[in-house]
Amino acid sequence: MRKFVVWASELDARLSRKYGREIPKNLAVESPKLDEIIEAAKILGMKIVKVEWDKLNPRVSGLDETLRAKGMLVIESKYGKSKSLRLIAQKIREFRKSKRRKK
Description:
alpha+beta; 17% strand; single chain; Phenylalanyl-tRNA Synthetase, Chain B, domain 1; 3 strands
């Protein structure tokens, strides 16, 4: 199992790679919430080691307040960081799609 840090901004489709987005834009989600990331990681069998709700990724500190996604997790996963982020983003999209259908 590998441990790594996941910032909410790494999954945010509104950000460029320069400002910390780690996955391709077509796979990223808009304004990911830390709760969504935690729920997705747990469903995917990843272990949440640590949660910091008010941490801000240093890469986004110069951006407009509306683009700053606060929150950081330390996750333990059997996959690497890149694959884990892709799986989490995919799961968040599934959550959001199912919530839209219920309305």
